[in-house]
Amino acid sequence: MIDLYYAPTPNGQKLKMFLEEVGLPHRIVTIRLSQGEQFAPEFLAIAPNNKIPALVDHDPADGGGPVPMFESGAMLLYLAEKTDQLLPRHPRDRNTMLQWLFWQCAGLGPMAGQIGYFNVYAVERVPFAIDRYRQEVARLYGVLDRRLADRAFIAGDYSIADIACYPWIVPHAGHLQTLSDFPNLSRWFDAVAARPATIRAYDGVADVYAPTRNPLSDTETATLFGRRSA
User: Do 68 and 141 belong together in one domain?
Assistant: First the structure.
């Protein structure tokens, strides 16, 4: 059994998509970020960076005690290896997949998160920051669009590289991007969106970077963006 500590953010959705794809038994433990549950000592014991997602594997392959994990990319790789699913088998293809997984974790996710923050959540409008991150996210969308020009998925067959990237393209409106500007990316996006596992993973999940979302209270804003872990 996997305990997934989760909130419906793009990084949280990565793990939910994976678990739906492979059918791995799991239990969702919802972490209410706006209420500060990510700072609870019992959660920090699993995820010292006070971010979701996190997991505990109660049935690790080595037969030992429970394995706690944080960092979504590491968790995807761990579960893919545990289940022997959604990983390329050829070493060269696997190497390619790992590069794109790390690209998402180091580039696409952080930069998309910044434009999402400055465009949707920031308490004051900062045009320079909005334009800077909008342009960088457009560049990254372009990188992925070119990668998908001659292939259905990012690293051959559907893999954890696709699962890592997709949730960060879902909020494209909040990122001030238009998918029709990136035709290969748009075609890939539609294909991933149509997968039954993706549909299940997103059932009832709202876009946290939707430009029209309800504003946060001052307390929620301070909890999500202003507090530092001890």
Answer: no
* Residue closest to 101 by CA, chosen among 14, 17, 7: 14
> 157 burial class (0-12, 13-18, 19+ CB within 10 angstroms)?
middle
Enumerate the β-bridge partners of residue 5.
29, 54
Spatial separation of the C-alpha atoms in residues 73 and 94, rounded to whole Å: 14
What is the 3-state composition of the chain as percent helix, strand, coil, each rounded to the nearest 5?
Answer: 55, 10, 35
Owning domain of residue 187? 91-202
Alpha-carbon distances of 178 from 11, 166, 175, rounded to whole Å:
21, 15, 9
CATH of the domain at 23: 3.40.30.10
Q: What is the pLDDT of residue 214?
A: 59
How confident is the model over 147-174, as pLDDT tens digits?
Answer: 999 999 999 899 999 999 999 999 999 9
Residue 69 near residue 48, CB atoms below 8 Å: no
C-alpha distance from residue 194 to each of 38, 40, 123, 144, 197 (Å): 32, 37, 36, 19, 8
pTM: 0.92
Calpha distance 191→150 (Å, rounded): 15
**Structural domains in the chain (count):** 2
Residues 148 and 124 in one domain: yes
Q: What is the dihedral of CA 159, 99, 135, 223, to 10 degrees?
A: 80
What are the strands of the beta sheet with 67-70, ordered from one edge? 26-30, 2-6, 54-57, 67-70
